[in-house]
Every structure is written in C-alpha cells, then in structure tokens.
Amino acid sequence: MAEPSSNPPVLSVRELCKSYASTVAVDGISFEVGRNEIVGLLGPNGAGKTTTINMVLGVLEPTSGAIHIQGVDLSKRRSQALEYTNFAAVYAPLPGNLTVVQNLRYFGMIYGVKRVSERIEALLQEFDLTRFRDTKCGVLSSGEQTRVALAKAMLNRPQLLLLDEPTASLDPSTARDIRARIRDFTAKGTGGVLWTSHNMYEVEEVCDRVLFMSRGKVLLQGDPRKLPHEHGKATLEELFITVAREPLALEHP
Amino acid sequence: MRLSRAAAIVLRQFYLLRGSPSRVFPLFVWVAIDIVLWGFITRYLGTITHQPGMDLLPALLGAVLLWDFLTRVMQGVTMAFFEDVWSRNFLNVFATPMTITEYVTGLVLSSIATSSVGLVVMLVVAGAVFGLSMLVYGAMLVPFLLVLFLFGIALGIIGTAVVLRLGPSAEWFIWPIPALLSPFVGVFYPLSTLPSWMQAIARLLPPSYVFEGMRTIVAGGSVSWTTVLMGGGLAVLYIVLAALFFNRVFRLAVRTGLIARYSAESVS
To answer: Measured between CB atoms, does B89 come within 8 Å of chain A?
Structure first.
C-alpha cells in the first residue's frame, strides 16, 4: 500500500454534488473528518446523509466534487482509498447464511487483514461475540448482528469508520457499550468516525462535532453541546426538529 | 490484483457448500440424472438404428456430457454471484477495496471448483454405467473442454451483469440461457440440419465448433486445428466482451446508485 500524504484529515469532502435527473440529492457540501474526531452527520429523512455516505464508500459516483480518504483521491485510486475505510449500517447486515467467524474471515481476507485469525479472536472478545462464533449471523438478534457488523467494521483498523445508525437496534445498555468502544477507537488510534444517528442524546454524548444536513446541504455545523444555544434552542433535538421543519429559517437567519 | 481477495469469494462459496446439502446436491445430482437418462435413450436408439460407422454413445451421450459441463460452468459463476444477491450483500462487498476484476476472478475460480465436481461425476457415471470413454475424442478433448469452459464463463459473466442491471428478479432470464442456445449450436445434430439463418448464428457461437468437431471425430474424420482455434478465439472474444459488459453495467450501477439500493432499498 502506498503511503498516504503526510497527515491529511482522514476524510476530506469538497463541493460534493449528486443529482438524479432534476433531483438534487446532495448539493455542494464540503466537510472534513479529522484524526481522533467523531463527526455526526444529522438531518431528517431524505436530507442526503446516506447518499453522502454511499459516495464516501465508493458505491455511488458523485456528479461532481472530490472525496479524499487519508489523502487518497477516491475517484482515482478507489481500491487504495477504501483500504483505509470500513463501515457498519443497519441496512447492510452481513450474510445471514455464514457464521460469525466465517463472515469475519471472509471480510478479513477482502480487506487484506494480516494475521486475520488473531484479529478475529481479539474482535470476538472485544464485542462479546465469542459464544456466537459458530452461529449463523441470520439467527442472531438484531443487537448481536449489529455487534458482528461493528466487529467487521473494525477488522482492518480503519482510519475512517463510517457508521450509519450503528446503535439503532441496540438496547440502551449495549448501545452505551458500543458508544464507549467507538470513543475508545478514536481516542487510542489515529482514525476518525463519520456517524449518523437520529438519537440526539447519543449524538451529544459521542460526537465532537455535528453537521446538520437538509435538502442536500449542510446547514449548520459545530459542537453538539453548544450548537442548540447558539441558535436559540434548548436542546439538540429541538434544533433537529427546526432543521427538519423550517430549514429556511436557519439558512437565512 | 490481489488473489487473496478473489480467494475470499471462493472461501465464502466453500463455507456455503460445506454447510448446505441443498447447495451441494445440485452440483452433481442433475448432471448425473441427465447422464443416466440420455445413457438409456442412447442405448435404446442403438437397438433401433443400425447405421454402420455411427457410434451413438460418444455422439449423443458425449454431447450431453459436454453440454452439461458448459451449463455447470455458467451456473458456477452465476450461483456465486446470486449468493450476494440473495443475502443482500452488495453494499458490504462493493464498499471494500476489492476491485471488479478481483470479484469476477473470484466468481470464475468458484465456478472452476464447482463445475469440476459435476464433470467428474458425469465422467464416472457415463463411464461406469454406459461404458463411455471421453478418450474417444483423442487429443481434441482438452481443447473441446477448454472452449466450452471459456464460453460458459463468458455466459456466466453476462448473466451476472444482466441481474446486476435489471435486479434480483432477472435471475429467471439467466437460467434458460443454455437451453436457448442449444438449438443453434447443434448439440445433437449437424449444423447442416439447421436453416441458413440459424447456421449463420451457429457460426458465431463457440460450442458449434466443438460439437461439429466431436461428430467429425466420432464419424472417423479429423478436426483441423483451425476449427478449434476458431471456437477458442470466439470464446476468448466473448469473455472479453462479457468483462467489458460487466464493467460497464457496474459503472452504471455506481453512477445511478443501484449498488447501494440493492441493499438499502428503504434508506432515506
């Protein structure tokens, strides 16, 4: 693997656009995810969050704009850029007809993980999956499946971790656990996280910075603990609802 | 290209086959049934036709065996791909560093493994029960199998591209492809039997050269290398075209968001 350019942000998105015929799904957004940073991508349904994540994952081609992962241009060196990433999403469960270990080995090989057996054992322990190692993923509870998806997302020790509602199907106790692990991931390593969630409590707890998207644009960004007060709202949830219902009020204050 | 990524696709197929009799049986049950059925038909025809110099066993049963081999090769590719369709795994697979070349190579390697099982079973049943020896085709057996293998791979890649483009329900377009082609390539009869427009199509299909060559050998003639190279050249051409087609469909799927929607149909 070629060395990335010296100390770039783990993710740099510049003037990113995605249009389908006359519909603009993402409209010229720019942002970065720094090292050891968790950035929340928030917004109502249809705001363009998942479209943005799909473009960063390389499964959706932007109409225009640029994405650099660890300094590597995704459009020019897709395979190399994606070696630095991994993701977990509620709508992308791992194949249910493979066991936990089989899935982790399969994806470990695809991501080129060195000493994959050792890495799998470590992740099984870290995500409390040892007892399910030979269980087919399809028969696990949704919470257990989420843990497997997160273990898969950590396989290659990604520099950029994309999490699309990672705790959506978890009970509060497990969700707290997972949040702690993700925070640990950014604190101990050099990676960053792009996180989407509709749980504003979680966002406040986890994210260092949030981006509010509406109608394909980033309307606001800042510290989730300060942003509500800067815009005259008591809570992040109130701010979210305003973004969802009256985006123009925030676009032209 | 990293072979380890292609090997991951093969390993996944191995895991699925190892734990699933419903995936293992089709590798050899249908081809074995085909060989038994056509073996008895051949025997019966042998008793009612007495054409001197015509050995029905390699002409009919051998043809069935070769045609089933091509079908299994094609299905080996498409089945490995369908596993990703059925388990809604596209997003997980295509959001990785794996390139399209590595992915398709993985499908082809899976097909080599699964179609080999079918070929061995057919050879054993045809030999043990009906006394068919494929050695009757002489040195041409290897190029015959190679041409059919390459064309089967090409058909498999085209099939996967069609399903990728049109969606999971399009798999029903894929299963009948060998049956649609078989009348044109003259599996059981000389191409001269066909009307001229069908013969024109036959000349564009690599298996036509194999089955014509096979009958020539059975009738005591010899097959020119030009004929075999023609079949082989066409098969390679179809593989190149199939790869270009798959690549084009994949790029379209990435541009339109089809890859993401395969897994995330309800995503906001």
So the answer is: yes
| Cβ contacts of B92 on chain A, cutoff 8 Å | 92, 94-95, 107, 152
pLDDT of B163 strictly over 60: yes
Query: Would you say A187 and A36 are in contact if contact means Cβ atoms under 8 Å apart?
Result: yes
Is residue B94 less than 8 Å (CB to CB) from chain A?
A: yes
Instruction: Tell me the C-alpha distance between B206 and B66, whole Å.
Output: 13
- Find, in chain B, the residue whose alpha carbon is nearest to that of A152: B92
Co-location of A164 and A224 in the same domain: yes
A-interface mutation test, from B87, B92, B101, most A Cβ less than 10 A away: B92
pTM of the model: 0.91
- Structurally, chain B folds into a number of domains equal to 1
Q: Which amino acid is at B210?
A: V
Q: How many independent structural domains does chain A possess?
A: 2
Contact A102 B268 (CB under 8 A): no
Residue A2 has pLDDT above 50, yes or no: no
| B268 in a structural domain | no
Q: Are both A178 and A252 inside the same structural domain? A: yes
Residue A174 — pLDDT band, cuts 50, 70, 90? Answer: confident
Q: Which domain holds residue B245?
A: 3-263
Tokens in use for B48? 């009612």
Number of Cβ within a 10 Å radius of residue B55: 16
Is there a contact between A106 and B15 if contact means CB atoms under 8 Å apart?
yes
Q: Which of A88, A76, A223 is nearest to A160 (CA)?
A: A88
pLDDT tens digits, A110-128: 999 999 999 999 999 999 9
Residues spanned by the domain of A107: 95-157
